[in-house]
Automatic annotation (TrEMBL):
Its main location: membrane. GO terms for cellular component: plasma membrane. It is a multi-pass membrane protein. This is Uncharacterized protein. Keywords: Cell inner membrane, Cell membrane, Membrane, Transmembrane, Transmembrane helix, Transport. It comes from Thermincola ferriacetica. Coiled coil: none annotated. Pfam families: Sulf_transp. Belongs to the TsuA/YedE (TC 9.B.102) family. The chain crosses the membrane at residues 12-30, 71-92, 113-140, 146-169. InterPro entries: Sulf_transp_TsuA/YedE. The lineage of its organism: Bacteria, Bacillati, Bacillota, Clostridia, Eubacteriales. It is found in: Cell inner membrane.
Amino acid sequence: MSQNQSHREWHWVVAGIALGLVITFAFATGHPVGTATTYERVAGHILEFISPEYVANTVHYYREAAPVAEWQTFFVLGLIVAGLIARFFVVGKKAEDVPEMFAQHISRSPGRRYWHAFLGGVFLLFGSRLAGGCTSGLFMSGGSQLALASLVFAAGMFVSGVITAKLLYRGRDV
């Protein structure tokens, strides 16, 4: 790790303690950490505007996750705002829009990099909602309780990430 990079990143112990405090606070207030339901609710709001009958008659999605703005919506908005603040005010011009590995093996285009990240997020979100869960909720909230399903999921997530990286970067040393 370069000296310049070390000034931009939190030490893993500090970051781990901060995440632990967030998860502890979430459990203490009765709201385990998770975000996928928010996207479902936002889609419900949009669909409710376009076709209220569809939303009212949908048995599964909008009865279990009614299209309402509640704490989790503001949690997700806070994540987005905090990311933007960190990117533009903390990291600023020092940030690389296209990491060197991505540039070497895929493209130097920031637009293409953002498109890949967005598409990956959409697939992850779609899969998690299709399975009736939330990846961050299962990984962080379940993992903090040492739930077996969470530990199996975490192992699967990391293994699939390594396989995907190997395929994406065409077997190069990543």
